[in-house]
Structures are given as structure tokens and as C-alpha cells.
Amino acid sequence: MAVLLKNVLLNTSRSVYNGSTGGTAAPTAYLTAVEAHGQPTTTRSLIQHGQAVVSSEYEFSVDTGVDVAIEDIITSIMQLDGVTPWPGDRASNDTNVTWRVSYIAEAAALLLPHRTVYVVRVEKGGTAHP
């Protein structure tokens, strides 16, 4: 348990390539209730990783062994109570928002080994924002 200050639970889904059909299946539930520390993407992250994280809005620190991959969909981000949405700017049943993993950085295995997962918020349809 190398992640300090855990403040969210993440659920993910993943699409899998099907070699027999030559297509990718619809995303299905993959990880449930992964404990993480979530925060807005920091300037330090932008400096360290540059273009790879420039479009990400949030970063989540998870334990090193968590099997999260680029292009996974974060289907739910909740506070530790498992009910209250995080970051709190949307309803928990808002189907117009999708979070996608855009980049993953593995921290050195010295003091606190962890993976930093960068996510991009994608809004589908709806009213245009100024």
C-alpha cells in the first residue's frame, strides 16, 4: 500500500481485441473499487512528461500492481464513501462524461512505489460550453 492520502475509488472498463472477428469488443467492467489518490494534473507533471499528459485533467496515484492500461475507460470516480461523485462537478449518473486513461507513469521503486494514471475528461454531446 504505497499510495498515501487515498481519496477516491475508481471503477474501470476495457475493450478487448477479438482476433477471430478482427474487431474490438464493447468495453466491459474490468476493475472495481480501486483505491487511489486523485488530484488535478500538476504543473510538475506537465514539465516531467510534456506532451504525453498535456491534455489530461486529472492524475490518480494507484498501487504499482494495479492493472490499468492506456485507453481504459474510468467508469466511476467516487469518494471513499462509494456514493459521492468526485470531483463533484457532475451527477453520479451523468452519462455524457467519459474519462479515458491517456498516459501512465511508473514511479521508482524506492520509497513509495506507485503508478500515476493520467486521465482525459471527454464530454459527449450536450450543450456547448463557452
Structure in words:
By secondary structure, this protein is mostly beta strands. It has a single domain, classed as Thrombin, subunit H (Beta Barrel). Helix content is 5%, strand content 42%. The chain contains 1 helix and 8 strands, in the order ββββαββββ. Strands 1-4-5-8-7-6 form a 6-stranded antiparallel beta barrel. A hairpin with a 4-residue loop joins strand 2 and strand 3. It is globular. The chain starts with 7 loop residues before the first strand and ends in a 7-residue tail after the last strand. The model has no long low-confidence stretch (mean pLDDT 83).
Quick summary of this structure?
The chain has 130 residues and is mainly beta. It is 5% helix and 42% strand.
